[in-house]
Amino acid sequence: MKRWWLIGLIIAIFLVMLSPLASASPDGLERVAQNEGFAELAEDAPFSVIADYLFPGIDNPALATILAGLVGVAAVFGASYALSLMFKKKA
Question: Which residues of the chain have pLDDT under 70?
Fold first, then answer.
């Protein structure tokens, strides 16, 4: 199948639509840091593109999360596509 990337893109977009349903509980690494008492030692990231997975300027948190996910999917897809073109074997 030559269009496997299209299936992957559709699945990624579908999962982004479900992202507002994700658990608000901390992930595994954060949970361990909290349980072991060193979470307060964490430093902020030097920069953030879309902080807390919420697209800036959108008041609805579910929509802000979906838009942030779509931007992420588009960025990863675009970078992957560009790399695939760079490394594509000439036939």
Answer: 1, 26, 90-91
